[in-house]
């Protein structure tokens, strides 16, 4: 019964983190960059939104400025990588470290800023999960449609080609460096959007909110793609799959908490989930597919008698 009562909250929070998963999907799957900026940019989105709401800004303006702040963080990572030659994974780590100090400045040196739901007409709120779920479904649908339209424009297709084969794209006259910066800006803008909604949902922005976010994003991707790739392997279905993967992750997360697992072990649980979903395809190809290719006669003989 306690699990059923916690289910709406798990779905609402899963949808919010699912947006962050979509941002990670763009950097990790489309650009082929393991971008660790997200641990900082999701917190930046939450901090900007919370401070602006506390200052009397309307919700739409607070969310929009949070998104732009996240996009700016992505630009910094992109420029460190493309203009200064810093390896992509290290660029994300450096920006993440920079953002920790930036986020503290945004919060005015505090570790937490509260968002008063009575003083602001919030889009999502923990006290009203059905309304939050409906709002998140609408926001996610609009975001997926916008990304679908964008990635089938000429600019969007060149972004995809940059991730698939940067050398071939460069040979075709594509500005690969610019595409990486643009792609990272889009990805971190979406991540910051998730952070802004998370701050509203929880009623506060905390300096440590983004810690380990990349692991949750990867978990959402691998859980979701394991299902969506079997249904129909295309862009839109993959994005919906990431949302679904995030919801599943948070349902499992809440179920484990209800079982009595100490919260100290939740980060370890997240890492184990990601490791399992990363390992299964490898183990399948390494031990099962290879064995069938080495002993094809086993599959023929396993069926029993044949036709005479």
What features would you highlight for this structure?
globular; disordered C terminus; two-stranded antiparallel sheet; 308 residues; ABC transporter involved in vitamin B12 uptake, BtuC; mainly alpha
How is this structure best described in words?
It is a single chain. The protein has 308 residues and is mainly α. It has one domain (2-293): ABC transporter involved in vitamin B12 uptake, BtuC (Orthogonal Bundle). 76% of the residues lie in helices and 2% in strands. It is built from 12 helices and 2 strands. It has helices spanning 2-30, 38-54, 59-82, 88-106, 129-150, 154-164, 166-171, 176-202, 213-231, 235-258, 266-294, 296-301; strands at 112-114, 204-206. The chain has a two-stranded antiparallel sheet with strand order 1-2. Helix 1 (2-30) runs parallel beside helix 5 (129-150) and helix 1 (2-30) packs across helix 10. The longest helix is centred in the N-terminal third of the chain and has 29 residues, at 2-30. The radius of gyration is 21 Å and the shape is globular. The termini are far apart. Mean pLDDT is 87; it is low at 302-308.
Summarize, please.
The protein is an all-alpha fold and 308 residues long. The chain has helices at 2-30, 38-54, 59-82, 88-106, 129-150, 154-164, 166-171, 176-202, 213-231, 235-258, 266-294, 296-301, and strands at residues 112-114, 204-206.
